[in-house]
User: What shape does this take?
Amino acid sequence: MGNLAPWRSPLARALHRNRSLIYARYLQLATVRSDGTPANRTVVFRGFGPDQGQDQDQGLGDRLRFVTDRRSEKIAQIAANPAAEACWYFPKTREQFRLAGRLRAWQGGDLDAVSGDGTGGAKLRSRLWQALSAAAQLQFAWPSPGGDRQDLDQNPDAFNPPPPDAIAPPDTFAVLELEPHRVDWLQLRGDPQDRICFWHDGDRWHQRNINP
Amino acid sequence: MGNLAPWRSPLARALHRNRSLIYARYLQLATVRSDGTPANRTVVFRGFGPDQGQDQDQGLGDRLRFVTDRRSEKIAQIAANPAAEACWYFPKTREQFRLAGRLRAWQGGDLDAVSGDGTGGAKLRSRLWQALSAAAQLQFAWPSPGGDRQDLDQNPDAFNPPPPDAIAPPDTFAVLELEPHRVDWLQLRGDPQDRICFWHDGDRWHQRNINP
Assistant: This one.
């Protein structure tokens, strides 16, 4: 594993200091569509990986984890182009992290692949699935996201399906892992503001103070 | 002008209902870099355009305005690829707008061009410049954003320059205008959540209810 990336402690500290705001765990994830235009949506941070059993916010890894429906557009976008940039603004401490890197999707068919934990992707999916609330789990049994809205007159139970298995994730459940290779940390509170750029050259992390 | 786009009233309402949170005016703007990877950063909403003199949040236009430093990377990105997607999450009302469209930059050299207001770009730039605080104006006289951090031992006044003219914008001041052609509005409060997709076909706006 080696050491933590130099931006990981500041990011964990921001999470901690903003923990009273539930939406401080929401960030915006940009990918590129097949037509070359950008896509951008809010996702919920689900912890760092590989975590090797530690508390998810304080784990050993430098990867950011999210969960998504495998039927969502971003799954197809990532398969064609894994490049992504997450933008994470923390309202209370007034700081921004821009995290550029590659996204990896862990889906139901990846049972034999090895996750960043050195465990099967199946184990990773199971763990993040079991950490969801029952209401969040239920959404993975809903009709396809982005599809024509289900007519509740014709299909009254479309959004009230039998609850999925609480232990074994359904095929619609996917885990996303972002592995950053460049991070831009801006702290608005300074005067002038502090801004540090971190980048990984394939061997190790470097950092440089830059103008805000 | 014609009528407002059908997503404009919901967006203005969200702005109004979240007005107690200063950061509800912050959104994330994704563009594409020249190497085909996405870029994503937080920007501050500066009003709708064309506004024809109305209150900026309630103006007649369907375009979203931001200000930026013309030395920032996004200016070069937009020149090569004007496609953008803004992601705007409103914490208090728990709703998200994803606004995909084209970005236009108004810079110092655009004096003769006509903005969406039917005025010269110079007038648009002047108005948004004069709406900035003195502290915000000062940043446009700072060293180039993203460049190596100025050494305050060698250049102690790098971030304390003479204040720029409060009336006439400097060449570093640029206005960005996003003209959306597709908007995805998600309201998390419903059960199931409500989600509407709006799109402009070159002639008029259409809308469709979709699955969340």
About this structure: Strands of chain B lie at 26-32, 38-44, 48-49, 63-69, 83-90, 95-106, 173-187, 194-200, 205-209. The helical segments of chain B are 8-17, 73-80, 121-130, 134-138.
